[in-house]
Amino acid sequence: MIRTKLLMLAAILLAARVHAAEPPITLLQGFGPGGNSDTIARIVAQGLGKELGRTVVVDAKTGAGGNIASATAAKAKPDGNTLILMTGGHAVSAAVYRTLPFHPVDDFEWLTTVTRFPFVIATSSQSPYQSLPDVLAAARAAPGQLSFSSVGIGSTQHLAGELFQSMAGVRLNHIPYRGGGAPVQDVIAGRVDLLFDSVTVARTQVEGGRLRALGVTSPGATPLLPGVPPVSKSVPGFEVISWTAVAAPRGLAPEVSEHLRGALAKVLRSPDVVRQLEGTGGEVAASADGAATRAFVESQVAKWKRVVNDARIEQQ
After folding, report:
1. Looking at the structure, do residues 252 and 106 belong to the same domain, yes or no?
2. Strand, helix or coil for residue 259
3. What backbone torsions phi and psi does residue 20 show, to the nearest 5 degrees?
4. pLDDT of 284-297, one tens digit each?
5. Are 255 and 134 in contact, with CB atoms under 8 Å apart?
């Protein structure tokens, strides 16, 4: 009996020593502390750490629209100790930049999508436009007179507006800003007619009565903004979905990839994690497998490349 207990104690101590020797997993993300990407990364890191029994730390490599973080991840050793939380901006960057220091799809092992969230087209609550058909009628009557804001040329918001114009057959006046809250505030004040932005950004203002939501860019209605019709009801086929996903450097061993993917799948089924992620304005949407994640990202890159080409947006 004593011998058995000593053997069990030795095994526990050995396991603890091996665990202590393991380096922490770094989950990179490319945007400022406290933002949506940072918040989602921290929720995922905490859940993954518990599931794996390891420390997972979030490291913000900010700048260039997330491309610095992506380049860092692409060059990291593919040993499972470096991961990255990607956003929909990754696919947009692949479309608006002539060259990047990494291949936006091939240089990564795509593990799973995490969340997806639609955009919303909104106007000031004091605006005369009560619905999207009102906007379309006004835009067709006076081409180029109605304006829409974005956080900058080549941003997802800008490209969403360009896609809308192309599919609806209208011409709007794009007003780019340099990020910040000015795009939303100027729409609220009526200085700009329309807002194309994520539900995460606009929902508080819609619920507070300062913005009027005219349409959501998901295929159907979303519980994130109950009662707001999909844009596709007025512009058939229109859809813009932003997203987050977890990836690793290319070359990850298949067994490590499957281990991480399985752990992430369990994390994204946790009711507590789901509740926290939904609080960021997204819907939890784990991929069926790595191939599905890769295919989704490829489709997003191709979509935004078409928009950039059709709108003749100069690549950076």
Report:
1. yes
2. helix
3. -65, -30
4. 999 999 999 999 99
5. no
72 and 156: one domain? Answer: no
The sign one gets for the Cα dihedral 307, 309, 312, 313 is positive
Question: To 10 degrees, what angle do helices 89-96 and 290-311 make?
Answer: 40
- CATH (domain of 134): 3.40.190.10
Torsion of CA 224, 227, 228, 229, to 10 degrees: 120
pLDDT digits (tens, 9 = 90+) for 160-205: 999 999 999 999 999 998 877 889 999 999 999 999 998 888 989 9
Residue 258 backbone phi and psi in degrees, to 5 = -65, -35
pLDDT score recorded for residue 2: 58
148 shares a domain with 103: no
pTM: 0.85
Q: Is 302 left (phi over 0), alpha (psi -120 to 50) or beta?
A: alpha
Would residue 316 count as lying in a domain? no
